[in-house]
Amino acid sequence: MPASSWRPAVQGRVLLLTICAAGIGGTFQFGYNLSIINAPTLHIQEFTNETWRARTGRLLPDHQVLLVWSLIVALYPLGGLFGALLAGPLAITLGRKKSLLVNNAFVVAAAILFGFSRKAGSFEMLMLGRLLMGVSAGVSMSVQPMYLGESAPKELRGAVAMTSAVFTALGIVTGQVVGLRELLGGPQAWPLLLASCLVPGAVQLASLPLLPESPRYLLIDRGDTEACRAALQRLRGTRDVAEELEELEREGAACQGCRTQRPWELFQHRALRRQVTSLVVLGSAMELCGNDTVYAYASSVFWEAGVPGEKVQYAIIGTGGCELLSAIVSCVVIEKLGRRLLLVGGYGLMAGWASVFTAALCLQSSLPGMPYLAVACVFAFILSFGIGPAGVTGILATELFDQTARPAAYVICGVLMWTMLFLVGLGFPFIMEGLSHFLYVPFLGVCVCGAIYAGLFLPETKGKSFLEISEELHRLNFPWRAQGPAWRGPEVTESTEL
Prior knowledge:
The chain is mainly α. Helices cover 75% and strands 0% of the residues. The protein has helices at residues 3-24, 27-35, 41-56, 62-94, 96-102, 104-120, 123-151, 157-178, 190-195, 198-207, 215-221, 225-236, 242-255, 263-266, 273-288, 291-296, 298-305, 312-337, 339-363, 370-387, 389-392, 396-400, 406-435, 441-457, 466-477. Helix 6 (104-120) packs antiparallel against helix 7 (123-151), helix 8 runs antiparallel to helix 18 (312-337) and helix 19 packs antiparallel against helix 24.
């Protein structure tokens, strides 16, 4: 067989294995641990009460049990915040691949805490385990797209980057299936359910060492030309990588003397005001729109909607399936419909479905069929989120910022995402208890604001080069000037200097 016929197959196989090995211990773990905490909700609350009675001889009041449960859920995004801050130093010190491998130490420690928590009679071990899993998710969700983006050829970089969302949705669905009562969601098996996060970590530890490191990191950060050449040859399936290696060497030469901007510096530059505002507003809207609460508290949402208790767990699996489907669809249509249309349409549809969901909850006692309409609205809400905000918001930092500001933008994204997720996870049980049938009204308002901002202020970036996007944003940031400050264009700089 001629070499030209097997090289594409080799390239596709090695790249696919790299995507899978990075994703299984990366965003898959994030989605998996986001959803598995839902199944043992009542079991963990009962365990908390029993543990407290064994220690003190009395039961905890209901509101304190709810507070402990909220902390167990919310410590996951709090750990993610710490992980997001840790990801940069790890990536530049150890490299992308080794950072992902070392990151599994948090997974192993968390799995041990989960597995022995009931035997030790300690709900504090659950809290610490959730915090450690959050740290692991925060690191991997920053390092994984960096690793894949630097390993993929430029013509496939966008499609490869979008696989992070697919692995997140796949992790959510897998966690929901494993959490079924027939599997690990029963009253005796929930410690094993939480400790099952060790399995994806073990798969990554077994597979990722066999795959190459990021060629860009090897050349630019470590200055190892031969290792870079070998990595490129494996990833591309050909020994002729001279052209791409030369391009990387020019990029490395351009890094000399350049400095990336710090996160706080982005807020100080007038020329970045539109970009930073868009990042903060739309990044906050994605976390505050109420979608992620469906996975952590899906059982409670469906009970509130009137779904029979024995059918709740199967309805929950449908939510994950909807996001997986919408993530795949988003990968296909994003370059055809554009970013702004997907955001406006996604948030607009979410606002509409949240309105219908609220009406269905209010009418469920007087009209038949309302509980099932409410469940249908939840599914439609998730589909709208996956096709629009979930697929588009994640690439804003890449497209709205040039090379000098992009690393700092990713830091802001990570901190913003995990902070908002923590606040929503901590506050949602009290919102649900206080607002009852109107629990989605605050999220409805967020969706309306997100749609309005995206429609009026976000520039369309579909089909534009980074140079064209930067020029348009420069004009938007200085609308009163016929000729604004001299714009030098995006500079090539080392993305991991932070």
